[in-house]
Amino acid sequence: MGLTDDTTPAAVVRRQYLASAAGDLAALRATLAPDVEWTEMAGFPLAGTYRTPEGVTSGVMEKLAQDWDGWAAHDDTYVVDGENVVVLARYTATHQATGRALNVRVAHHFTVRGGLIVRFEQFTDTALVRDAATA
Fold first, then answer.
1. Contact between 23 and 62 (Cβ < 8 Å)
2. Could you tell me if 50 and 134 are in contact, meaning their C-beta atoms sit under 8 angstroms apart?
3. What is the pLDDT of residue 1?
4. Are 120 and 108 in contact (CB under 8 A)?
């Protein structure tokens, strides 16, 4: 079984990161359930909960690309418990307006059911993100 047809929770989440890194929003949307709930942490520039695959990519990924150069989530450690996948990662980017670099740790909690991400919650040091985005 290849990565693209593996529906285990960790494989689905990994596909989401690979699609994001490649800038392939269609492939990223394909990992999301139609009723996905995607929550960016309070204090993060895009704080709030986004619904639907299109809502997630237009409200989060496309907006990050507008404000940050080279935005990337580097996934490195996966902790899997049934349908729950927690990924420890790092965000790197440079804010377009300030020119300040961002390099911050992040934890993502995904819930995967039926081969699709149904829930996402982000945890990060929002002060470091804010500092990089403000002059």
1. no
2. no
3. 46
4. yes
Indicate the SS3 state at residue 79. strand
Amino acid at 62: E
> pTM of this prediction?
0.94
Regions in the chain scoring below 70 on pLDDT: 1-4
Q: 32-40 and 116-124: which strand pairing?
A: parallel
CA distance 54 to 41: 19
For the chain, what percentages of helix, strand and coil (3-state, to nearest 5) are there?
35, 45, 20
Q: Among all chains, which residue has been given the structure tokens 């907006």?
A: 63
| Residue 40, strand partner residues | 48
Residue 115 gets the label, from left (phi > 0), alpha (psi -120 to 50) or beta, of: left
CA-to-CA distance for 113 and 101, rounded, in angstroms? 36
φ, ψ at 107 (rounded to 5°): -120, 135
Alpha-carbon span 29 to 9, nearest angstrom: 16
